[in-house]
Queue: 2 jobs
Job 1
Amino acid sequence: MPARVTQSRRIERAGVNALRTLLEDHDQIVQEIDGGNDYGEDLFVMLTKDGERTGVAIAIQVKSGDKYKRAHGYAIPVDGHANDWKNGLLPVLGVVFDVATRKLFWANLTECLESSEEAPSWIAVPREQELNEDTIQSFLALTHKFVEARSQGRIEESSLHVTRLSGTFSASPRFVGRKQEQQAIRDMLTTAGGRRVLVSGMAGVGKTSLVDQVVRHHDVSTVFSGGVIVADMHGFSAHRTRMARPGIAYGPLLSVLGVPGDEIPRTAEGQAALYHRTLDALDASGNPVLMVFDNVAELSQVAELLPRGEAHGAVLTSRSRLGVLEGIERINLDCLSPEESGVLLTQILGSGDQRLHTPGPIRDLCTLCGHLPLALSISAAILKDDADLTIDDLLAELSEEKSRLDVLHFGDTAVRAALQVSLTRLDRAMRDPFCRLSIHPGSEMSEQAASAVLGVSVPQTRSLLRRLSHASLISRGSAASRWRMHDLVHLFAAEQCETTISASDRQQAFSRLTEVYCQASLNADLTLRGTPEGNPPQFHSTTEALNWLDLECANLQASARAARDIDLTGQAYAISMHLIVYLDLRGRVAEGLQSAQIAYEAARKERDAERQVRALNNIGINLTSQGRLEDAIRTLKKAAAIAERIGFLDGQCDAAVSLGAAVRQHVSPRAAIPILIEAVKLSRENRDPNDIGASLTNLGSAYRESGLLHQAVAALSSSIPYHRASGNRRQEASAHAGLGVALGQLGQQEKSEECFQEAFTAYREVQDEAGIHLNYMNLAHTQLKSGKIKEARGSLHRALRFFQSTSRHHFEANSLGLLGAAEWMSGDTDQAKTYYEEAIRIFRRIGLKESEREMKAALREMLSGRPS
């Protein structure tokens, strides 16, 4: 279904169309500025006289509708455009379209702002200044006069450096990568019609180098037989007065186009006319030229200079998106790939440099430079200048975030200096939001997170982010509604933030952010646990919650650490605890331990004993997963003792279940049985179905591993209804899997396999990859019992690959032991011996002595020749 055109949009278009028609009927050249760029201007008008361009251009803001009417005329809101309208290279005029009378009225916005000490909120548009067929010539004459007076009143300190490339020239052999972008620009320039390209990107990303490489390509030089003309427009010089203006550009451009000096007119108007006639003559003679305007900050610098003949080409480079005019294709340049970064360093240092023979540190250096060509080039220059400096030494200097931008400085080239110019060229109203975004601890963020930091609505935030992206200070992120700030830009913004925004403002912004993360991470965690809240819930499925956590995990972890460090302990605890299940599902055990430890530190700062118990329990669970069983048992005993001392029954249940699981692995399953019986007793007293189900499932596993199969079946079967009552599908899957193993050992193969299928269904529903592969291992155990050796091998190899890739060494060793049994049963004792010995080595390395003894016993039994 096509999108509806709203009434307000129709009214806006009516005003733009009426003004455009009037101007074009009087031979003025009008182009619309891309509506996606919120620069406060709608039309770009190049003024003509007697059919020739005059070199004078203006921008026009058009407003339509009743809300701009006033008792004695009309008014145009200034909003955040005061600086742009007052100080831009082009004067900005405002036009109001009265929908009822279909009339146009105008005011000189730039003149009004220049004459005001303080920027007004609205600028009046008097009824006397109607713009129509009778007044258009007067309007044009007044505009010409204002532009000339404004130009004369400004000190022209800028200079324009123009060079001409012609004949045969070769591309730089030291240029790295960008093959896709090179091809795209060549295609745009060599295809008839169009031939207008804007290459944009952040400071130091290599825009000029890319364009230089393209224009030197044989295909491009063949098309533009008249040569390539390169003009540096100084748009991003440290001082705005050095920016090249159209009025001073015509003379140097005419000179390189071959016009003798004594034939170049003295006035800008005469030069503009001759410039375009010269280009037209080259077009007619079949000698088109390619105009390259480098370092363009504003469209006003080049709009009058763009060739009008279609045979000619034009390439612009800018840190800004420029509010692109009609007919210009865009290429936005990003940083190099990790591989390209390494090649660039190698080329600058020279392949003979012995320091390049350490690929690990080279990769780390490229990462700390953010794969930004400017930063990489500076790093390489530092290394080349100091032959005694090792890459590890430079890494140590760059690893300190607060001083990284100090290190990335060589001679008169510095990353900070380049970024400072980008900030200076940024509209004043955008500087504060740019700095505030660095309060977010990660360089990629959602619009919701940015909204919390900035303290404005999401729609307002989106508009601000879009404007910052036009300045190439941020870019689109890895998913919809996400934005990314380059790591070095983030560091620079943080420096600025510390000096321009008060500590209390920064703390309030960060507190708002952590509140957003607390609520969203809670909703995601509850969804993963099978108990989503909200109507409707924020996440409608496990997949949605996992996808969100995949994107936000690093930000949540960084926010929790930062919150802990500045004593926002409640947020630090909550965010860390909300990550535990997710990290377990993703097999990120070490990160799970770190999150639990942060939660514990926050709980201790708060002196909240219940929270300490919950955090200690999760520390113990993660230590158990890592095979650090003695540490786990000690931690869980501590949790149990605190819980008992304060009468925290829920915490006692959790600690007892987790302690039983750790003792089961470290000592023996039989030693865990009394602990888990006590856990069942406590959980029944607590009347929490989740606790009852968890304690019964763990007790059933201990019974099964102790050979008490009937007790195991009873405990596991009785746990399943409790898991269903609590909605914990993950625990239910574990119960089904354990029951399947017990039934298989009792010889009830059909019921066993039904249980495994139930477990697979539940594990897949919650996307528990570890559970799925543990289930494959358990299924293989039953398959071996029923003589299905081939099927068991397939299940075990699948489980083994997963456990090896996620460093779950306990289960890796168990899988190897079962593969040993499978090969022993098939008669391949040599292969079986290999599997058993590898399993023994792993159990010894991770300190599981009981499992090591059991595996050695199985190996001795096989070698003695007894049947399996």
Note: The radius of gyration is 35 Å.
Job 2
Amino acid sequence: MKLKRIRLEHFKRFSEPWEVTDLTEGLNLFVAPNESGKSTVAEAIRAAFFERHKSGTVTWLRPWSDPSATPTVAIDFDIAGKPASLTKAFLGKKRCHLTIEGRVLDGLAAEDHLSGLLGFTYAGKGASTPEHMGIPGLLWIKQGTSHEIAKPVEFASDHLRNALGDALGELAASRGDKIIRQVEAERNELFTPSAGSWRGPYQEALKRRATLEETLSTLEKDIQAYQGGVDRLARMRAEHDQEQAERPWLALQAQLEQAQARLSQAQGLAEKKAAQEAVLVQATAQVTALRGQLQAMERDEHALDMRKANLIAAEESQRQADVTLQAWQPRQLAASQAHMRAREMLETARHVAARQAQEKAVSDLQARVGTLESSYSQAQALQEQLTQLQAQAQALVIDQDTLDQLRDHAEGLRNAKARLEAISTTLEFELEAHATVRVGQRDLAGATRLALEARTDIDIDGVGRITVVPGGDDLEELIAARDRERDALTVLLQHLGVASSAAAEERARLSLQRATEAKAAAAVLAAHAPHGLASLATELATQTAQLAEARALLETLPARQAEQATVTLDHAESEVAGAQRALEDATTGLNEARMAMSHANAQAATAADELAAVQATLSDPHRTASKAQASHALTDALAHQVTAQQRVSEFSHQLETVNLPLLEQDLERLGRSVTQAIAAHTQRGTEITRLEAELEAKGALGLEEAAAETSQGLEQERRRCSELERRALALDHLLTRLVAKRSELARSLRAPLQKHLNRYLQILFPGANIDVGDDLSPGGLTRLGAHGAETGVFADLSVGAREQVGVIARLAYADLLQEAGKPTLLILDDALVHTDEHRLGDMKRVLYDAATRHQILIFSCHGDAWRDLGVAPRPLC
């Protein structure tokens, strides 16, 4: 498909008629600034084909200044080598007129004919969207969408399949795919390959089988339990009947009564012994009390002498404490006075030390300010030097690309001259002194060697004229190449403002030298001002202010006196510490002496009181009678104690022959035995009754019949599971084989598209390879990187790489469609805007090659970038 003419009228920004004619069959480049109408022209082409002429929703096609206008697009084109013409008007006087292959179609018939011919559909309602645009939507790249390929391919997939023949159609939308989907669906009804688990009918059959197995196991356990219960019931009935006849608990009851009688007799002896033990305890307590009373009276008599001695000792302690107190009082006073003098000396030393420290701080700050002033002065000079070096380096700098071009042209000129000289006609003259020879406009003399590039006349005085015509097929081409290199070199030298390439090299060297010197100056500046000149100035101002404050503070401190020069702070602090310790020791000694004096006074008073109390007790007139009475009572109590002790011994001897705890244990043991024998007999009877009822209930359930039925159902489910498992595995195997075959067929059908893609790809990425998916969209891209082959999916590429691959993919689709005899047209509206200069050069080679087979319309606002495309740009106005 080749466009010949485009005419717009009342269409968006083209309120006046606009027309472009004589579009070439290959590349057509439209260059204009932004907002000039490039995208409007591309949109007009899309509207002419994609939008229904009767649509009322395309109001944006009208010019803003004329809301009642009728947007009109007229396009003349060739399709399959035959001329066609399309005129479509929207909104106002709606019409659609198509002339093609000698036929005239109007309205919907014209639109439907075009959609079938070009491979797209119309929206059922409203404006057309990308999913309706089919093959043209894939090949006509809208502004900002060149890096998107998956969706346009998806929207064009049906049309591509229809256009590319039956084989591709059968691959993706035929009975073969239907069979694969059917096999996969039936397999998925029984098996989930991603999770490796069974599902659907097979999973339900497995559940039923597991349920029946569990039910059968339970029934078998119940049958075993029933049979065991019958045997147990027979044993329990025999044991119960035997016990009922023998009644073993009656013999145990007789033994219990005999043990009770023996225990009662033994407990009578124990009670008598306990009564005598109580009498013995009372007698012993009376003896102890009377002895204590007599011993207390004897202690009172001995206590009188002891109290007198205690009083004498307390009075001696009181005298010694008073002597000690009198000795500590003057010592403490002297230590307090010495401590006060030491503190005064310390205060003086602190004043002296503070002034010395402040004087040192002032001195340090003066040195610091001096250093900073020197650094700041040097940094200012270095900053000026750095600025000059940077300015010189910037003024002398030559862009590396320009320098490389200059070197390339200089080298090319040298090579061209050398090659030209090698094939030029060379004349060597060795003339006599009197000979006159003129070559062209030049007079020769002596020995000379000339290389002639063009027709040249040689005039020899007295001989005549010789015309030399240089030969060689490549001479003119080499001369043209030399001139091109020389002209290009001259343009670059004039642009740089230098006389020669050597001067440019020297300028580049000087620029690099100035940059190096600037870097060195910056390093020295950083040594003087690590954080910058402003930071150094701030630090200088801060240190200067701190110096002024330190001097002001020094003025407020008292001046040092001559006698204070010998006083040091360490000595004063040592003296204060020593005086403090001496004062603390003296104070402690004085306090301890005072406490000792107080304690001695209290002990003397206590001793006097105790002596007076003992003397009062011994002088009581009833004391002698009380002592005699207590002595007689003690004699009687001792006699009662001996008698009670003898009776307790007699009862103890009798109880030794009788083991009372053992008799009590016998009574307990026999009583429990009687109770347990009766309870066991009763419990066995109850258990027999319960077991009889339970067995009767289980017998009525028909456990064996139920187990037989369950076993039969289980066998059926096992057969069902086996059948479903074989079916699932067979379907999975069949699906694997079908998919493998389909993939093999898909690879063979994708081969033509792969071929076209790789042809363009080798221009853009030499040695690279790109996969094509079943949906015919680009997949993984493999290319050589810094570390060998690298593979990545299309979506992971950069925006620039994606738009480059997106463009070459569309060119490959166009080649494939052309081979299938289908119409092609490519439109690039501001595509490749994210492509760097190097890649853009490769893409121009790609587009130039593709233009030999397809018509390509390129709309761009970057005219300079497309200057070397090989076609003249078309303006829009």
Note: DSSP finds 18 helices and 21 strands in the chain.
